[in-house]
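Reading a protein record of the kind used here takes little practice once its layout is understood. The reader may check this reading against the record printed directly beneath this paragraph.
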Amino acid sequence: MAKHKLLAGLVLGGAAVAAYHALDLEQREALKDACRERVNALKDRAVDYAFYAADAADDFKESLNDHLAAKTDAPAWQTLNDDDTADDADDDIVLKSAEVADLNDTAADADEASDDSDDAADDTSDSDAE
């Protein structure tokens, strides 16, 4: 069955190419212009639908916010911003670039120190083995 579809596609494609080459120059240009017009119309329609979808999403968000604002028992995610823990500076993980450089230096020093202690441990285990 798949072979028949492949064969039919090849035959129809070949027939379309042969028909296109059989057209004179004016007819080819007219066919190209008609195809361009249809493609441009399709692009315009796609853009219109995209704007329509964006408007619908905005309307939905506004409706949802209005509905949630009218409720007296707000969900937990809406009252989370009113929490005092969000204002604590201790909870923030924001570092300045100088602090990050200091952290990298201390981490590199710690890695070197651990490498040195590993080497010293390896040296003592080698001397014990002899």
